[in-house]
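Open question from group meeting: does this chain pack into something compact, or does most of it stay loose? Before anyone orders reagents, we agreed to write out a predicted structure and look at it together. Recording both the input and the output here so the notebook holds the full record.
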Amino acid sequence: MSVSVAIVGRPNVGKSTLFNRLVGKKLALVDDSPGVTRDRREGTGRIGDLTFNLIDTAGYEDADDGSLEARMRQQTEEAIRVADVILFMIDARAGVTPMDEHFGRLLRKADKKVTLVANKYEGQLADEGLYEAFKLGFGEPIALSAEHGMGLADLYNIVATTIEEAEENLKEGEAEFEAAVANLDESMMPEINVDLEEDGKGVEDGKGTYDPNRFLNVAIVGRPNAGKSTLINKMVGAERVLTGPEAGITRDAIMVPWEWQGRTINLVDTAGIRKKSKVQQKLEKLSVADALRSIQYAEIVVLMLDATIPFEKQDLQLADLVEREGRAIVIALNKWDLVKDKQGQLKDMKEACERLLPQLKGVPLVTLSGLRGKNIDRLMEAVLKVEKTWNSRISTARLNRWLTGMTESHPPPAVSGRRIKLRYMTQAKTRPPSFIIFCSRPDALPKSYERYLVKGLRETFGLEGVPIRLWIRGGQNPYHEKGKFKPS
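Structure tokens returned:
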């Protein structure tokens, strides 16, 4: 049985370093400056044979309500509320500070199982801080070095004991439930007759086969203050990530699992991405790199634009990056409730999108208000539709009939008096749809003719809004002699 372990403490004591070590990946941003982490981040922690849910939190600060620090504190308090065991981390080299004492008093009121962890226990300088930690009243502290992996055996014992207690409580609860069911009068029970469909089989949508029950990774990217975090909170129906009027609140890329119409959607909130020339500080560079990495691991990318100032140069560069990474994309025009001439503005934006992003012709354009929660269903319908298109597979026979028609209506140009022959075509892979054409002189085929073919593929097979890869190769039809392909 999995339990939840939250790492809490004041800023800059090494919480994210321990989080990264236990999950085995550098998921959380780590820097020497305090206050790097702002949102709570969850991951699967592992110590030996134990697996558990691990929560990294922002450094706890005593701040007034309404400020950014106060909203960060609320995220930490929520992590404490849902955790089964709390690792209260202090800096052994700095000793116990007044903020540690204040935080300790709050944890005692939470009525949770708390384990004191003295981090940065490297060398003799940390001994005094370790002994001083006893006065916090949480028993003997665990001497730990998250950076070097010291003290993990003691953490193993703490988590193992918590898992054993949780399993015992579960067994007791199951026994009570079975006893209660045994005493029920069956005549009072309602009749249930539900036909369950088998899942995991995938469905045939006419274009290709894909699994509509598989989880879907959706990254939400855009410029700072476009409303990405606000939208995610409205989707999940909770203040899961920090929001506010300040630009650049989000630093880490935070994954938030969400269920929509019975399907798990892994929403990834990312830091706002400014122009490269404006990104000077090391911490912002780390945040931007984390956001760009999220695009690589996503399947669908929602590019969030501010409808009051859409299609700035940075927006177009982000869209181009998504296309080059081969990810499906949906453009979300946020803050639509602030637009006055909605019909005229939408018409202008569609024209601008077709003109400025020809490589993504037909990309879905959805207007919404993240703050008010309007059109979230329309956004998700567009996401699932473009996912189907991104997974499209077209039969070789259909592709070669199409290729014959395209070359007959507009033959390839003659180069040096010799006509280029397009002999055979097949789809190499999906995600995104990628095709190979074998021709007589691949190096001589003009790029303009390749664009003509890509445009035809998009229009004929309904591949709007997704990247298309087209590779031109030399040689004959590789299946001609084997008899695997016979043109109709």
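Observations to bring back to the group:
The domain at 4-163 is CATH 3.40.50.300 (Rossmann fold).
The chain has three domains: 4-163, 203-390, 396-474.
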